[in-house]
Amino acid sequence: MGTIITFKRPDGEEASGYLANAASGNAPGVVVIQEWWGLSDQIKGMCDRFALAGFDALAPDLYKGTVVPYHDTEAAANEMNSLDFMDATTQTVRGAVQYLSRNGARVGLTGFCLGGAVTIIGATKIPELAAGVVFYGIPPEQAAKPADVMIPLQAHFANQDDWCTPELVDAFEKAMIAASKPLELYRYDAHHAFANEQRVQVHDRWASELAWSRAAEFFRKHLG
Description:
single chain; alpha/beta; Rossmann fold; eight-stranded mixed beta sheet
């Protein structure tokens, strides 16, 4: 449904990503951030789904062409740990936001796992954003303080998650409330990465569909 495009980062360098356009010519935009596997078919499919729901969706390729197989967690960890999160967020992701907002559209940001953490960082660093939806990812507080969040956030977390643990989620929620920041937070009796239907061992269809419907409605509310 979509296609690979190039776009400019704020620093003038080029980046690439997968773009899926809505049928409407004046659609709001959603930037979709990958898991630690890279710009996989799963993430491209999520862009396609946003496009069918009425959004222009762009997933920037933060790994510049590398896609890690689902079984190779060591390689995925190496790729994630090699990523400059601040450069990725303030340059590549912001460039994607600016690309979708170039015709005056309101733009939201969402991401999964690694992309969830990038979404929270983006919520503190990207002024063009109007809303964000986080899926099971939280950055270290030194990367993004809840008090610095500039946009309404919705967040989806798994109760059976040994990476983005319930304790981390509780601390994030408390910090957002203490800072009087708008947050809709949902917990699901599911495993980490429950929204990835390509990973059958962790995918939870009920939780995934409920989270999707909540995310789409949240973006319709805040992006128009």
